[in-house]
Every structure is written in C-alpha cells, then in structure tokens.
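Sample pair:
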Amino acid sequence: MGSLVKKRRKRMRKKKHRKMLRRTRYQRRNR
C-alpha cells in the first residue's frame, strides 16, 4: 500500500508543476 501512495503523490506533483509552469509563462507574456 505504501508504494501505491508514493506513486499517486508523484503523479500529483507532475501535474502541479505543469500548472505552475503555465502560470509563469502567462505572467512573463503579460509583462
């Protein structure tokens, strides 16, 4: 069960990183 939780956390982390990257891109374009 522990390994399953770790895998889920890794997937969430990747998605969060993508959202953050998109936000920084939009901010740079606006500026």
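The helical segments are 2-30.
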